[in-house]
Fold these 2 entries.
Entry 1:
Amino acid sequence: MRGRSRQETPPSTSGSCAAPTPGIRKTSADKSPLFAADLIKKHELEKDEFRPLYMDFQATTPMDPRVLDAMLPYQVNYYGNPHSRTHAYGWESETAMETARKQVADLIGADPREIIFTSGATESNNMAIKGVARFYQSKKRHVITTQTEHKCVLDSCRVLESEGFSVTYLPVQKNGLVDLELLEASIRPDTSLLSVMTVNNEIGVQQPIDEIGRICRSKGVFLHTDAAQAVGKIPINVSDWKVDLMSISGHKIYGPKGVGALYVRRRPRVRLEPLQSGGGQERGLRSGTVPTPLAVGLGAACSVAQQEIEYDHQRVSMLANRLVQKIMSAIPDVVMNGDPNQRYPGCVNLSFAYVEGESLLMALKDVALSSGSACTSASLEPSYVLRAIGADEDLAHSSIRFGIGRFTTEEEVDYTAEKCIFHVSRLREMSPLWEMVQEGIDIKSIKWAQH
Amino acid sequence: MSAPARSQVISLYKLLLTESKKFPSYNYRNYAVRRVRDAFRANRTIGDPTTVERLITEGQQTLALIQRQVTHTHLDIEQRLLMTDLGPFDIYYYSTSVWQ
């Protein structure tokens, strides 16, 4: 409904009553895009201003003190190049790097030789998708992915399309999960790679990677999974899941920013064309000096995660339940996006009907929240993930993602819930739509008049 | 658990809690205190002396780690953090810090 009024209202009347909600959103007819940044002004915090509390653990996480403790010596004392073979500086860095590689491998049940250090999950995804597709392009020229993938996966696929590959973007069901029958039916004899993310970054649903792995293995298709949001949070075993490539990010698991890893299966062997040319580090797949402190940090983060996985999961589930219970019991017409059971509990995506997501974000300015992924949070367009799960446009516009993590406290959850309840009620009081709903008018049946 | 081990464990527990409370950051402080308490609670019933000894060593390493990490205080800028164990508009001033 809002989409229609946006398309049909001429620019001269954009401020008139055609739009049912007070017009903070411009029409698409006036070409300048409206960015959330225009509404939620960026500014440095003043000395006497409060620091917002952090509820955006899907965007990034603070570094665990245990990780920093492991990294610091490699920033100052042990600064050798891990690829230097002629002196002790190099040897000690290499040992540290290999220990880190083993820690990463142990967390996902892999062999250390199958771990390639990269600059992050975006690079890992690019490497995996472009690398595998290009390596096998003489025989296989088809790639499958889903519509709810991260931007870097979708964009890599777009690049492949421009190179002449055909790509299938699988739709997802209402609950955010892929339809396995459709997935199996989409596999063609010339399909080289299937890429499905483990845990979605916006709605937190967890795809059945083990079943997808079985299908892929039986059809001889390589399976890549973007596990940036899943590693260290849910138990993962690459052999059980039959995953061939897996992307890992450091800063989503309380590790340093700027480092990640790609798991590449050795048996049966997966081959890929490297993106970067150079000194042939990382088995020639990723040239460039491995940053020892960052690799050590990633390793430490993985080892801490392995140790804490159960404790963290229990706590995050408890806090997420607390948040959802509090909000849902206090205000009506709140929808939780994504499958209620097949999910990682730390990512809660709620749609507050009859409330503008951005207005709510502005009202909740002392809580660091996001309406979706950080990469797309600058634009006011509704998230493509929510559109892919078939959320109505008005619900997609009113969604907020709550990220709960290791360092979240009960107090923070309670504050966020209470503040959310207060502001949603307040904004609804002001909304003419809400008033009409209270009077029993079916909003969807209204034909909004054009002037 | 033998008597010396018992007193050793109790003193280690107290030391860990004291040091954890020194974290300048609200979130790290809360996590450290909670994690120490929960770890000791979970391992309360362990009687095997070798396991107890291993856990004590681990605890001592953690204690050293916390002490190292807490000393980053001098790098910190005092800044107010909104914290909230009261209602939606009752605001508590907590001093917290950002590592620069």
Note: Residues 1-32 of chain A have pLDDT under 50 and may be disordered.
Entry 2:
Amino acid sequence: MITVNHLSKTFKNPDGSVVQVLKDVNCTIEPGEVISIIGPSGTGKSTFLRALNMLEPPTGGEILFEGENILAKGYKLDKMRRQMGMVFQSFNLFEHMTVLENVTYAPKKLLELSEDEAQKEGMELLRKVGMAEKADVYPSQLSGGQKQRVAIARALAMKPKAILFDEPTSALDPTMVGEVLSVMRQLAKEGMTMLIVTHEMKFARDVSTRIFFMNEGIIYEDGTPEQIFNNPERSATKAFVQRIRKEVFEVNGKDFDLLGMETRINCFCIKYNISDKKDAAISLCHQVLPVYQETGGNITLRMTYSELSGDTALDFMREEDQAAPARFQDESFRKQLLSLCKDIVEEPTARGFRVKLML
Amino acid sequence: MRQKSKLFSLLALAMLVFSACGSKENEVVINSEADLAGLKVGTIAGSIYDIQLSAREDISLHLFSSTSDCVEALKSGKVDALLMDEVVFSKADLKRLGFKRGYQLDEGIPSAFAFQKGDSSLVKSFNAFLKEFKESGGLAATKDYWMETEVLRPEDFPKVEEYTTGEPLRYGNSEVLAPIAFYENGVWNGFEIELVRRFAAYMHRPVKIELMEFASLIVSLQMGKSDFIGGCISVTEERKMQVDFSDPFYDIHPVYFVRDAEAISAKSSSWEGLVNSFRQAFIVENRWKILADGLLTTLKITFWAIVLGSLLGIVLCEMGASRRKWMRRFVSLYDAFMYGIPMLVLLLIMFYVVFSKAGLSGATIAIIAFALNFASASGGVFRTAVHSVPPGQMEAALALGFTKARAFIKIVIPQAVRVGLPLFRGECISLLKGTSIVGYIAIIDVTRASDLLRSRTFDAFFPLLAVTVIYFVLAWLIGFVLNLLNKSSK
């Protein structure tokens, strides 16, 4: 239904500098798909979604909607938008209209529905999102969750082929997120084509047929929820879905500030509430670092913690290495280390070789 | 709030009534120049007396812009004496006002019409006409009729042949007082006016009489707005430098007028007095028609200035939101300009400089000037109103499939109106009140009309009360109409 080729978008700052938010986005969206778009903030998720219905005109590439390039000159944008609903983070209900009018206004004006038809359909949709009771109320009297449900009904009233959701729960009180997500779940079940920019990982995992992980202005990884959440192919994806936090030290030669390192490890452990691992981590560093320092080179020491799984690890990496330093073959040394950590993983990486100590 | 404003207007009315009835009763006697010492003397600003009196250091000089203001000042005791032309007050006037004549200056001062400097042909024609008219005895008869008749009745006014084709002679008149020149039933009359009419007939040309402030008369002549000017203009050496005078046709006799204590104490300030002064102000000779005409003029200027100004305001609002820097800069410059100069100055610039040769009527120029000013004000209102609507509303409408124009009209404007309407109403009302200055460019609006009534009756109370009420009602009406528009648009 929608095909995106080499989509790019650059913004010009008032000071003249140029920011490229979307670099090269490619994807195909088929009818009935429910796609969640996840990724760190500032990587162009919302910009991509808003480009799809031209609220944010892209600067390059093409978007084909049902085979036609919507970026072409003379393309009837308003006709396309009628078939592609949108739900906003800030709801954007028409403040001067009642709930029912919000839902019936566009069908009356754009689909030329009679007042009666529009009202009948509007009430049905409001019933569906649980807002029929508030049909004659103005938006200012509704809670955030209620507003968002009305906004979904408003989008549905145009009988769109797809709906774009731009962080639909980000502006909501945690207590109201559930009611909106359950309406969206129901829609997904009914087979509505949906694109959802969201930070609700559990929801994305449960409801989506596909996940786009966006990073650095592109769709960094694209796959089923199973693939993305359980077996991500790329480390940035993994870091994101497992919510991995890290502290990195560059160790250059013998003069490295060990005491400074201890302080930073201490802070990291306090920040993520893993102070029980602090002593072991520091002790391991004191034992392993000299092994590396003997042979020289630039050593990267990384302490990581996954907020999702609770896994904590110390990574030692050196670019010149093909294998772990010889000392790791020594049984007594390994035993000594294993008394402080659960496991020692030795693995090659794109750049050099890594020894991972699982705490 | 509403209660308070009612109370306040009642209080203001009461003050007006008291000021109309009460006056001090200390008799001032002026039998010679020496008696003037230490007195407060009033006269018209820019007149020949102004120059004479300002030479004396032992009196305090008070200058006013019109005869009726002078009268009010003497009535209310703000001044002790007025130096004015003898002909200003008839005996009946003096009796009614409670004034009497004091010391009279010996020599008369010749008075004439003034023409554009260097344009000798028209002056020559006038002098030839005057000579002929004098020799035929017409001048003496005319003078006699206007100056000596006890009660001037419109049905007795001399008829003068009128021409309707050809280029009109434009006569700028500053004086509004019987019997020299006065405005009644929509027509100018009086001694000088009859001379003007006879001269026009002599020239076989129609005539156009325009009312101006004394101070702007000479400017008007120099700018070519008028062909000749009059209104008790005395011939002085200084003025000869700037204009060419015709041969003088009558003498002005300056007289000091003072309050007559006897007459004042005899004067009744009863209900009957009020009724009588009401009759004098509005009923006699259908004087209310002057006010009605003025009201129409005020409405016309206000209405068109609002309509044109709003259209221009929309353009300015659009330009202010433009992506082009020079457009935005133009708008902020325009706003700064309109904000920074007084409306009256803008009006005078338009009348005397920008459109001095354009041949537009005063009312048209006033509409243009007020519309230009209103454009800035309304543009600001529109900008504020549109900005008050969150941009998400527009996006939501676009996302539903409305075109940009339709989304703006159907979604943004209805919400912007809520914020903008009270502001817009305020601007409209201040425009309405602002139009009261158009008298400066020879337009008789409702304010100027009340000036005319005052100068005819020398009574300020009812004419001022009438304009107060008229403006109050109009302001309320504007609010009412705009609210109605707002409701019907919902």
Note: The longest helix of chain A spans residues 278-295.
